Amino acid sequence: MKTIPVFFYRSGKRNQLRIKKHVFFFNANSLVLGYVDANSYQNKIPEDDLSKKTLYNTLLLNISFPLKIGTLSVRNLKLVYKEEINFQKAPAIVTFRRFNLNTTKLQSGFGLKNAADLGSKVNCLFIKKSSLKTY
Which domain of life does this protein belong to (predicted)? Predict the structure, then answer.
């Protein structure tokens, strides 16, 4: 195991602890995020890089510490995606409102040979008019 340096401040002095044979981890039965505003902007100039990219599930499995969340709930998220093709026009905007996500068995692959299947449910209002649900 690696030695993990941990820094903390007390009375203006900087101290360093050395923790041996310990591994950082994050473990929670549930995590709830409420009323989050998320904005994403993508400029299409220059053109997209079409090379093969790693998907998010692979990135999650390759996190270098144990991460386990029994249930992740996101409530009333507002997600705004803007994409600009050129500077002569305003960016195209796609908005998801009342975005609710419920995911179960979220975990990294650190130290695991097999991981349980991730369960996920999403419902939201797409562009102010359409209901969108996935299971």
Answer: Bacteria
